[in-house]
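Quick question, first post here. What does this chain look like in 3D?
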Amino acid sequence: FGLEAGDAGHVADVLAESSARTNASVSSMGEAFKYVAPVANAMNISLEETAAAIGILSDAGISGSQAGTVLRGVLSRLAKPSEQAIELMEGIGFSAYDSQGNMKSFSEIIDSVRVSTENLSEEQKNNALVTIFGQEALSGVLALMEAGPDEINKLTESYLNCDGAAEGMASTIQNNLKGSWDEFTSALEGAAIAIGDVLLPHITKAVDWVTKIVSAFADLSPELQENIVKWGL
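> Answer (accepted):
Ran it through. Tokens below.
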């Protein structure tokens, strides 16, 4: 998305908020971004709106790399439509660009598609969508149309104003038995490292001393070794 390192906190908040509001996990959201983010950024579609579209697709069972591929396909087909698609879009009055020639937002695109195809039969609508967006993207486009532009805008707005979401989620996770146990085991690990640092030199000396004794014992005659064992017992 061309973001700076200083935006990492907000990105974490968007990922956390998305995992709380939709079926998209943080890892699946990251996987989807790998495929669609560069294309979305090139077309001036924001991180937040892209995350909203991914979340809606995830709720429809289209997640991870599949969601990213679907959205990348949608944007790519709109950026360079086929001659057949151009003719069809002109026929139904659909355009993915505004009057200044800028790509519309996801919500505007979906709303425009919905309006342009509302008077078509189910068969005609599906044929039109396949012609414009491609067969692979059909299920994703239908899921976005089912959710509608209002839902896309609602999620987008929540991601624009979600600063602190990741910290709040982390606090919630830590405020339970598992969080307490994690802190306890972490403290034990820290203590073990500290104790090891202190004892290691002494343990090393002790091991060296025992090694010398064992070596010396091994050099004795069998009779003397046996006598020493008997004396020890």
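Residues 81 and 113 are 15 Å apart (CA to CA).
The chain has a mean pLDDT of 86.
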